[in-house]
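Fig. S4 source data, part A: sequence.
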Amino acid sequence: MLHGKKIVVVMPAYHAEKTLEACYAAIPRDIVDAVLLVDDASDDATVAVAGRLGIKTHRHPANRGYGGNQKTCYALALAEGADIVVMLHPDYQYEPRLITAMAAMVASDVYDVVIGSRILGNTAIAGGMPRYKYFFNRVLTALQNLVVGSKLSEFHSGYRAFSRGVLETLPLAANSDDFVFDNQVLMQALAFGQRIGEISCPTKYFADASEINFRRSVVYGFGVLGTAVVYRLWKWKLLRSKLFSHDPVLRLQPISAAAKTTSSC
């Protein structure tokens, strides 16, 4: 706990058997109250490794996609009574030891959302990020900042911390089940006036780390730009979109223990 707030780490997993143990070992357990892993129908030993480590695990019977995985992660975390939720990829690309700093930025009520940025500190290339990915990261972020009117260093990091209020308020159920989910969440946070902070985070690219291919990256890029355009049109009151709706039906609901369809290890 930090400042009396319960910290829950969620790990959206897919084929993470080779990296999960090392990543989990680096999580600062002195402040983290619970770790939840959602396996997206992996056909490797991810669930078995999680069970051996004693991680509470939920497995999708069929692949729901990266965004669909996160929706389950956050619904489970809300049911767990989390006050602050930190999403950490189990592929060990991001530094787990920064969970303390990220959670503290939310626990102190300075920010509602915190991004672990690979761009701040200029460590992305040194950490092995492919240069074409770095280039498109910078271009897409610049275009998004221009269209949206924000000044974030990066929209594309998968390392985030959220207050409970953010996860209960944003219409996350309206978001894509694919990779663009991450961008939609940040756009929604901006639209709903949430306070977004950033912290420099080193990243590691290596053979066992997860990575989307070039074709999926292109699809993601168009999805990102499309989300930014929808945001701007919505802001100008020229378009109505479920992504920025206040309809409570589009908010995530906690998944109760009785509704879980997989084992808790």
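Fig. S4 source data, part B ends here. The chain has one domain: 7-248.
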